[in-house]
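Cross-posted from the bioinformatics board.
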Amino acid sequence: MDRELLIVSTFCFFLAIVRTAVAIRGGAYRPAGFNFFAIALGFVFQTAFLSVRGHALGRCPLTNLFEVFIFLAWSVSLIYLLIGPAYRLSLMGAFTAPLVFGLQIFALLAPIDLRHSLKHSPTPWLELHASVSLIAYGAFALACVAGLMYLVQERQLKQRELNSMFYHFPPLTDLFAAITRLLWLGFGLLTLGIAAGFFTGQPLPYGKVAWSLGVWIFYAAILLARHLGTTAPRRIAALCVVAFSAALTLLWGITFLSQTPSM
Amino acid sequence: MHLFCVGISHHTAKVETRERFAGHAEIDRTLRAEAGCSEALLLTTCNRVEVYAAAAEAVPTERIAHCLLTAGDSLGEEVEAFYRHEAQQCVQHLFRVASGLDSMVIGETEILGQAKKAYAAARESGAAGPYLHRLFQRAFRVAKQVRTRTEITRGAVSVGSVAVDLAEQIFGNFETRKVLLLGAGEASERTARALFKRGVRDLRVSNRSLERAEALATLVGGRPVAMENWESQCREVDILISSTASPTPLLTREKLSPLLHDRLDRPLFIIDIAVPRDVAPDVNEMEGVYLYDIDSLQSIAQQSLAQRRQQISAGEEIIAGHVDEFSGWFTSPRARVMQSALELRPSES
């Protein structure tokens, strides 16, 4: 039952992608409510999936790589729905939908939905650590999406080749401000998540701690470069894309290569 | 009832001809009393003179054209420049005109305002009755749909508006932005005025002649800057508009590089409308600098026009649906009842 909910959710994101692709192909892209509603509907089904799975497990559904990916996709949708309209980043939906779709389709197709015998019983600190860290990854994912939008728009401006999407981008300086806010949001949440990890009362997995600190330091360095004003916005945007790709790989590494459940 | 349109436009007649047939103060009365129209509306713009009318009997094109002339003028061969659209073609033509599909600059929106004004005047004088009321109300609806459902109005099509649109796409809000005008030519003045209209409040003008700089600064609400200080201004400004008569580039990568060192996180938009160019082309390769010269601005304006042309078929599709609906109403028993009622009305003298 829960996987069916996820399939419906994935289909909603797929519809958003198709709509965008058709509009761009027709040379007449304009951000419509359709993308927002498709993502909102997809989010409702994601939430239903996590709820059903959580009830079945009797804990926060973060027990294997499959659930981690879905929780991450849910975080990305949640933050998009919260900040997209607020910052008038309507076009962000066109970039967010493929990312969420990719995460979910990978989770559905890869043989990673494995049941583990859990070593530890869940504690509030452990659940806080895992969930907040993943929501932080959601913010970083959106910073990566905004970074990609920045790079696409910047390239069009430099090359002087403006397509029908160009005038729907948020202004370059507004987009950079949104990247900064998303970086701070993600960084704050990640700090909280890592700190909560030290209060679980369980032995610290040093590999995970090192990786998490590595991600934390990477993002701290990006924020430092941003505020010192010594790095061009284009490079900050590119770093957001690199950092999230690295963080996602590390997340997979932490959860999969260690052959242990995420909690 | 005959519903028809007779007119001339930039497609069929030169400006001298359009001027001759631009109508006169008594045109509403003349069209009804002399030409025999039950309802008549004159739409005149710089690119077209068109009469939309409803009449119980067919009215020849020559008679309408004659009404448009001022007293004493003869029709001559220019009458051949007139086109005529009847019934469904008339409806389709008006919908195309109101939507900007028939305009010289495809997708321009000024025509809609002009059509609304013409309709309001005809309503006020009593020249527009139920047929033209229904026709024009529908035309305004169609124009709105074409504008919102297609990209027909998207993108600027003149050099000045392209520059302002690009600046807006980079900076968003202009209120806190600083602009430097280098050279006090007419083109930079136009662009500066457009930026001022959009909210720029910090305008600086630098020119070889300080008097000219002061004069332009007063015109655009800015302040003059001595020519020897313009380079240092590049540390502060967000937009630089250059249009001097210098035979060699004033701004090169070597000159600009040290000035931008402290402002890496702030973009610099350079609009170089001078010929020969004031800014070396390789400045565009610098981080955070966006350089547009006259050719690149013109090329974007052309791209926008081409994109607008691609949208014509989408606009035509919307129009076709409305034309069918309107024609359905026009031939319906309800419309015939309305026609009978109109025919029973005493004719105006």
